[in-house]
């Protein structure tokens, strides 16, 4: 009696004996090895490529001979001549086992492959797609055994893929008959599972083998901007990234003003819902065009957003979010179809997943940051700050995670700033002030040179110097403090007090002139006392939120800080700390996570397991409500000073010494901390 | 040790012992007794009314004392004073068990109550509603334990009703917050289950206890007319019945002409889909108004229809149904929402159920007839004929059921008849011809008198005599045969041949004058040779279909015949048999089932169990395709003669002797059986 050949798969290490002549794909399936296939082993989809390894493998206890697999067959020859098969590769459905063999499944042949994320910290995400393709050969109709075409598709899926039961998106049913006939009873279907245990849902079908791929959108729906990543649902690759302004801005800059608009104007919420859905349609069409794909192939979309955007997206009046107890209509993840959501640029059957919210002011965007940054898996205590119009703040380690949201307002994004503008060519994005001469130098978006370097003025001639963006204003305020032109209370000194004419009178206060473009017809760009106050309000809110979480956790310091948000990437850690935006920590312990919310959306888009993970995670996060916590006001007032009225900043002090100055002559300033503030 | 009191429920006979003080509702629930409750035992919905029985019950082995239940409490006093409690009734949630007791649950307190159907054969249907109401008291939001309002509704359903999990119709979610607040955190929700084992779906919510009921539509969507029954989903009572013409008639009278329209005109199918959906919206608004209920309370709709109507309703191009192999897009039952179906008069979340089809030409209407008439449960061999523009024919007994569809065309409905009209006041619906004088007498819709009775002409003066409807033309043709004015081949004799001037020349053929209204400006109503031919085509198709099933079953005769269809009720069995519409059978074995398809729709509307039953049943029915069966043509040609060229009609002969006449002079007629026919 001979023994069947041994087949060992790497990297899984799964092994088993199979009769001579068993196709490699069959062996893989029987062992539960993750080897992709769309055509079900018919040699046409090429998803099941494997690499046999030859030679001696003492680790596995086998020697693999050159004839361990069958020779190339006609199917492989044809595929190679038409599409080209990489050297050493075989089609797993064609190559059959002849002798003991070690078979490597390359990442691109795995359904649950790992995808390297582009974020600053290069982590990987594991594909666990909700929607997958299946090629089937369907029986033709028979008058003597009448069954519907759909029922025969279901029968084919049962016989050819072992899928016992399916449900069907109604709109897909309507198009099924011509597709079956065009494909001569061979079609590819897309099945969506809301969960690995759920009955798969037929959401799309194409004639023959569908080779144009299927795609998903990961959308970070912010108060100010909407950012989308178009992602290949098979490979996880980002095909295009695009953004668009949130048109709801015309109803109010910040969240509370939008809630107010809904409260004051009958139909106002509906109007805002319509506006954002139209913008999403535009964005979908644009991003599909940019990637050169048919928007009809976008079968999934994941949304992350704050609670007000969440409700307005879903067509829920956000009025309850404007008043205590800030009750969400729903906090769990929401699953629905594009048709239900009224998104017309997507196929009606496209599945939408909206991440769960954490609390009335801590939304699905915060959940996405938690999914991306995983504070609950950090050994040291990490503070994650997602800076936007509203700041999402998470504090945690493996013991416990806390979260809150803080109404920073739009100042960090360059709004409500006298010379503020959004980050676009011509905007000052970085600035340094010489502590001795008090003269500034700066860099503008679209030019890598500093303003005191040769060639700068030629390079910026076309865009001009148009304003100052979010990161620019933060640096400017911090630099004013470092250069001794602004005192800890936030007062800008006069020319006499500071010894520079750049500190010019501006009514009863002073402003610092960064650049005077008036000779060339451009703007005079200054930092005014009002700008300082706006930044103070924003940074105090951010710091107070972080402190509230630290109080709740019973700590005075954190081990490290992660700055997230599109804008986090552009903030210098030193300047953020001079300003007192974040608690004192060693500068090398401040890192940027890029757009963590967007990354969280991408992770959820590519993985059902990740969706289940964040759904569980949000229930374990302790929510802290800043709006009703008296200590928030105390922390807020104390954080008004730059960097802080009372908290020591020893790590900051070891890096930079801040001049001890005071410009208070009793005639202005100092009221900032007591202004009424609006959430947003 | 004392023994707990014994509680016996009738009619179920369920019994058990419960501690003194147990509410009757609690005892019923623990025993699984079918006792309704919407408010969950709070004494506000009054659904759980029961009748205690007092005295000696030797059958049950108990004596029930007057104090077996607790005395009336304040809740019952209040309810009785406000609404009135029937004598002897108690509220099951308030009355508590004190001593041994026998408790009757009246039908109206049972969820699964039986409802007597109005059809000719008084059968009952058992309520097993898919949508039910639940009153819940919901926790208010708590900032310190933030959860969404929806999640707290789910929690309340879990705690108060033991419903572990729900899903939510997205449109219901959007309206939930104001409803919760309006109801002061007490609401009634409607939960829909597609199956008794399915996760219930939240499809509607109202503040407080919802007392206005919930409703369903049972719709028989025919080629010519759309008929709807508005039904109370709690009691099964029909609140209103209404009908509307199918506006698709403008695209073609019969099914095949509509399929042709779709094939010849790009967008034609979509146009017909839009037309029928608009008509359904109109019908919904009208029927709700007629019943005086809010259309927003119609939470379910069941459709029965032939395959072409089925596809056009669902927005599926019916082109495949126009050619062999007549492949349905889907044959199984279809479940979807009103929003998906584009029905705007219903709430978007309203659930739609379309019965399964049996085959490409045997639709959900035939399935509904099978559900209503249950040929598979008949001990004797029954032929069920649903007469419409298309006839659905079922033949079966407990052994086996066969089904086919036969293209009778619209002649039976008065269309394609020279003086034909639909059944409306003024239409001749019955006619008798004196065999001696050859003079007709008739009755018209809207008047109970015959035309030879006193007062007839006064009574019909207002409507006039406008035409002849379906049952009228059938009787007219049969009476012409009985009176010897028409020969077995269908030829009308001349005045000379018949001896009456009412047989007048009409081109190369003859017509029989029923009524000349021209003196009063009304129409001359005649039966023309063309009318006879149209009826011959229709009746031959019907008979041939029945014979095909009898061949398949291997029988020459059936035990009984059920005439279904709105119109079946109006056909005299004798006249139908003289015409040879149905096989020869004793006249008392011919019964009418009224609108069996509509009844089947009502049964499915009220019962999940019935939906599962018909879904199983259609798979067991043998389908016979008339369009491709050569014997159908043979049977069709042989059935052209009146009553039949070859089949003996002994039962008919025992009732009436048909004159042996022949009017064939070689100059016309006789071509009827060989005309090309169109399905429809």
UniProtKB/TrEMBL annotation, chains A, B:
Signal peptide: none
PROSITE patterns, alphabetized: 2FE2S_FER_2 (PS51085)
CDD domains: fer2 (cd00207)
Listed transmembrane segments: none
All copies of domain 2Fe-2S ferredoxin-type, residue ranges: 5-109
GO MF term (any one): iron-sulfur cluster binding
PANTHER family in the record: IRON-SULFUR CLUSTER PROTEIN, IRON-SULFUR CLUSTER-BINDING PROTEIN-RELATED
Protein's UniProt name: Drug:proton antiporter
Species of provenance: Pseudoponticoccus marisrubri
